[in-house]
Amino acid sequence: MTITITAFERSPDGGRGLARDTRVRWALEEVGQPYQVRLVSFRAMKEPAHLALHPFGQIPTYEEGDLALFETGSIVFHIAERHAGLLPDDANARARAITWMFAALNTVEPVILELATAKVLEGDKPWNKERLPLVEDRVRDRLKQLSTRLGRTDWLDGGFSAGDLMMVSVLLRLKSSGILDEYPNLAAYVARGEARPAYERAFAAQLAINTGPPAG
Known about the structure:
Layout: E1 3-8, H1 21-31, E2 35-40, H2 48-51, E3 61-64, E4 67-70, H3 72-82, H4 91-120, H5 128-150, H6 162-171, H7 184-195, H8 197-211
Parallel strand pairs: 1-2
Antiparallel strand pairs: 1-3, 3-4
């Protein structure tokens, strides 16, 4: 059965790999599964056909036969469970890798998204100059904890796993802020993720959509 995912017809990030379909593409590339992409406009995302797949009108979605999924964490977990390459065989190591997936999405990403909101959506608010440093400090608190845990190792728990895929994807949002560079081991960790051939293929595919001629 052919796997079909959805992606922005034109991504708000201009193809820099921050749109969440990149995470799903990366997972599929890591496990060697071919897939098709159905591009969705912002208007189409709010129409009944797409809402039937994603009730919140977002991307990506994942379709394979009768199965339809939304939410990148769920999709990547499904891919990792069904295909070898993203979860260890050892039961305890597998559980730890899954825990890191949850940590990336539930503990690390929220403060990073809060920073993005403060900069992009609240930049013109009169109270932003006071709020922004507080948000940045919350990001630093999380990064300090993560940096300490990672230490000098290449990956979070043994070999590369779905936990690393999700964590690197989350941290990529900080590259332009300069904050990530304050933690050299985390910056190197993200660079290792970006250097993986599977990530490079996923990034190139997403970029090609956004730099090519408009669909239709």
